[in-house]
Specification:
The complex is a heterotrimer of chains A (about 325), B (about 325) and C (about 290).
Chain A (H helix, E strand, L loop, with lengths): L4 E13 L6 E14 L4 E5 L6 H8 L7 E6 L2 E2 L5 H7 E4 L13 H11 L5 H11 L16 H13 L5 E5 L7 H18 L2 E6 L2 H7 L2 E6 L2 E7 H6 L4 H9 L39 H5 L5 E3 L2 E3 L6
Parallel strand pairs in A: 3-8, 3-9, 6-7, 7-8
Antiparallel strand pairs in A: 1-2, 1-4, 4-5, 9-10, 10-12, 11-12
Helix pairs in contact in A: 3-4, 3-5, 4-5, 5-6
Chain B lengths: L3 E14 L2 E14 L3 E5 L6 H8 L8 E3 L2 E4 L2 E2 L5 H7 L4 E4 L3 H4 L6 H12 L4 H14 L5 H4 L9 H13 L5 E5 L7 H18 L2 E6 L2 H7 L2 E6 L2 E7 H6 L4 H9 L49 E3 L5 E3 L3 H5 L1
Parallel strand pairs in B: 3-9, 3-10, 7-8, 8-9
Antiparallel strand pairs in B: 1-2, 1-4, 1-5, 5-6, 10-11, 11-13, 12-13
Chain C lengths: L12 H6 L2 H18 L1 H4 L37 H37 L1 H15 L3 H12 L3 H11 L2 H14 L3 H8 L4 H12 L1 H24 L11 H8 L8 H28 L5
Amino acid sequence: MIPMIRLTDIRKTYRLRRGMFAPTEELVAVNDLSLEVAKGKTLGLVGESGCGKSTAVSIMLGLLKPDRGEIEIAGQKIGTMPVADRVRLIQPVFQNPNASLNPVKRIQTLVGQPLQLYGGTNVDAEVKRMLDLVGLPARLADAYPGELSGGQRQRVAIARALILGPRVLICDEPTSALDVSVQAQIINLLLSLKKELGLTMVFVSHNLAVVEHLADHVAVMYLGQKIEEAATDALFADACHPYTRVLLAATLLPDPQAGLPEQKLGAAAADPFAAHRGCLFAPRCPAMRQSCVEDPQELRTLRESLVRCERAV
Amino acid sequence: MTEMMLDIRNLKVSIPTDRGLLNAVRGVDLQIAKGETLCLVGESGCGKSLTATSIMGLLPRYAKVTSDRFEMVGQDLTTKTDAKLAKLRGRDVAMIFQDPTSALNPTLTIGRQLTEGVMRHEKLSRSEAEARAIEMLDRVGIANPAARLTQYPHGFSGGQRQRIMIASALMGRPKLLIADEPTTALDVTIQSQILTLLGELQADLGLSLLLITHDLGVVAAIANDVAVMYAGRIAERAPVAGLFAAPRHPYTKGLLAAIPVPGVTPRGSELPAIPGRVPGLIGALRGCAFRDRCAIAGAECAHDPVPRISAAQGQFIECVKAGEVTA
Amino acid sequence: MSDVNIETVRPSVWRKMRGNTGALIGGTLLAVIILIALLAPLIAPHDPIAQDLTRRLLPPFWHDRSVPEHLLGTDHLGRDYLSRMIYGARVSLGVGLGVILVSGTIGITLGLIAGYFGGWIDLVISFAITTRLSLPIVLVALAAVALGGASLTTLITVLGLLLWDRFAVVTRAAAQSLRHQEFIEGLRAIGASRTRILFLEILPNMRATILVVVSLEVANVILLEAALSFLGLGVRPPTPSWGLMISEGRDNILFDPWLIALPGSALCLLVLAVNLFGDGMRDITGPARK
């Protein structure tokens, strides 16, 4: 079966100049990223700031051209696909519903716009259907985003993303700007939509608890590289990569018994310019050996995980 | 009787807007004993940040702040003057903010920003102030602190900047530290480092800590006591273990239930979300502010005042249905 | 669905305006002046350029020497001053509007493009802005008039081509802050064209800012027109313009000061009206945010 989303060896670099006379440096935002998501499944993409999640999202949406590699959605290459086809296949939901809706447009316009752009008919009826689908009363069609609550705005953003009937939804931190109680509403909505519409989803988040709840399998990224990928159960029960373990340990649970995790990380911060061939996490890694820095780390299968660490056992 | 570092009764903050008076804080009681950590937790718009800023006296002049009692680090500030508060600020009481990037001035060196306050407040000489800055930077885990005094904020990572902010707050050797979402802007691995640091500092220096957050994970990790705030009032106050093990207020229960817990919440199951949204706080609010979203609300919930049911050690909840809640 | 206690009743622009005294006063004043300008042929008692040398320099109605049929008196060529004032409003408003159309279009387009695209495009446009700022307006106008002859069209063209800088600077800054908003990325994800993003999505967000610039610039242009006409670089006699009238009244300033005071006050009033209205509208039309 053809996967719904397939990324093959994606690489994207930015040229940066730190200071006016400094030589340009290459920042590798995404390196050799390969991902597959089967139809109807949800991939959780996890990592901290600077790990390349956002770049990966832009590439999947066709907004950013990778230096190298292929993206296929439903078996079709996205690079050569006409925009009108692309937008009917894949749509984003962004993090901040305050910023993802143009504040001067009415909800009616915002939700209907994608359809309007592609010559859809019966826009009004469709907008109504969409608002109903995401659980918003139809009378809000007349409102401006500023008059809605954060949760309502995120519902509008979801309605807008779904009106063209895409098969893939890319959710970039869709709940991290929301309050806990509203977050649960949106998670429930995404879950029911996924079931109802058979959506394939990529759920990008730094919140592991939310990812665990939504995703079927999880890919962990660090400084542009996928360092571990596994089915959600396997990853949460038995993470292989030291970074994944640190990340899991650092996730604070609403349980006072759990206390604060013992920090085993080095004090160094993630440095995207680190110029060594080996593991990018090595400078912070509690299990680091000299060879980690020297030898390029390849993805390998360990138990149920795909892991980029030669020392993981 | 333990010494109270903060004792506030019936704090009210109102802000005039063009749609009417916004009663953002509607009678908050807060007590923090010496060496304690109190987490003030709530959702956006519940008034938790305003509470903190009003304690620090940092609200704009048009905000109306009243309280029946306001004692801080042993001083009665009920009839406080701005001058009196300003004197406490930066010495006995210090505050750290959510975003370390915007709280540090990018055009001044770290050393300058750390030393300025104590040189003014405590009349320290430059070398004395710098010595203390080095001590504090070392304390918060900045390596090679002496050399880094001459650097500018952009030379530090986000986590390091928050450490510097904390060092800066410690410069006046405060007894009470108010932290407003100190880790929200940080990555999770950095977050646990900063929280660990705050916990250590508190133990070593005998600090009292008022930590404001929306993250129940942070609360569970660091608090002794928790005050859950909703619509400008404290809905429930309890020791951390009790609150998580047996929340009593329907709102607290709802909040805790709404968070998915890996390994506990079945994957893909519908989360028990709290329906509806926070009520608007413009004008008067009758009865319990949560009743529109509350599953067990009844007619009596619309009556004023909402009874407060107190227990030992400052625990209380404000809920008329409390009997049924505990059952 | 439970999120229902939403306030969907918005006060209309009109109702908001009633609460804003400045906008109300400015708007009324502006409306009156516009009405006068539009209806000039109907309400002007005389032909504004018809001379009557037997009735020169008649004083306005509050003088005892005044004549009832010339309510505001006559100028040094015996032309009815009230009629000239009424027609003068046409020139002031016309020039103001015409120049803003030209300069606004240029400035807003350049500013949007520079702010949205950034990079070398921004460098080029910023350079153009700096270049424009270094040009002295009066000297350039002088040169243009020398080449093209003084006329209303020359005046509007020259001022229009010179006064776009403030529009460009303001829209550039606003576009820079808007281009990183997520809704722009969302629009690109649905394949919206750049033109649509720039002019139909970003531009409406700048409504309030642009309104303020428009009000400042209209006032500025009206004063510039008066100044240039006064210097003989703008409107040609006998066309009535308030600036020209002030210039023509110069010789009689000692004995007949109203010749200057009347068009001067009219200018003042118009500029004040425009500014009050612009300021008020900015407060009123800003997007609803919490």
